[in-house]
């Protein structure tokens, strides 16, 4: 029996790493547009407000379609939509074929929509495949899978900026290899999706995760996603305005993301030893002073190191929030996953869309200055949730 459990655990690691590699590659496309947007604005001769609107179309479509997918296929176990999404995910690279004229902004919308929908139908099904993994600690599973997406998102911006800097916009065509590699990873892992039963997770899983009302978890998820959404969209714009090269915007986003990745493994360990709420309530507020320091020193190249520290603390909580959502009270598993992923990031996208005209009129820095408040609010909600549980 021990040998069988060991073999099953090894295979689950294979599945987790395969899913994580897919997540990494598809999120390269998700992170591409934000960093290269200053170059897109220049090529198409469009304003920053229009550029932010295009970026918001990408984010809104991607995230709210995820909620629908989580609902309509909540009782299915076969991830049939994964290969469909992989076929069309590279459509955004077609902007390289559009003429350098303002009208191309309109023609780019269908390409953006197709890629966004492709990302949207992959994410919830891949996440439910992850939730069939029950021999590895849930906080570690969430960290490995979600951080691979973070790395892909950060790498997408940097890779896209690098390709454009060296080869022009046609360099984006080289990204076509990624869906092919994703197909290989998908079919090597024999994936199935989790379906929630009446006797769900906490009763059957040996790793006990505290149960919190899903409304509280969702509020945390929104706060934890608004801040990085605004940071990843607006920092490249501000750095471009300050005269830094396009690739440096990708470096800044990558520093924030790599910090989040490094921090998540540490805080996942803390969550395993203490609790997810304990880790969130400690990590989230701690990073705020470093973010404030970065915003004060944003015109200095070396200040990006502060973004790494911000990510290590404040940016590392979201995977723990997803773990809390997995075991939360309210709705079924598919809908909880759709909301905490698609709903939270989708709400962040709406806020991003609202800030586009604000940034155009009043400047980018006023928008960036509100981001520490979202991290701090998320930490306060975590403290409230933990305090409330102690009083029960």
Using brief descriptors, characterize the structure shown.
single chain, 392 residues, Growth Hormone, Chain: A, 75% helix
Describe, in plain words, how this protein is organized in 3D.
Helices cover 75% and strands 0% of the residues. The chain is mostly helical. The protein has one domain (2-391): Growth Hormone, Chain: A, CATH 1.20.1250.20. It is globular and about 55 Å long.
Total domain count: 1
Q: Which architecture per CATH?
A: Up-down Bundle
Fraction of residues in H or I helices: over 70%
Largest sheet: none
Query: How would the global form be characterised?
Result: globular
Number of helices, where a helix is a run of at least 4 consecutive DSSP H or I residues: 15
In short:
With 392 residues, the chain is mostly helical. Helix content is 75%, strand content 0%.
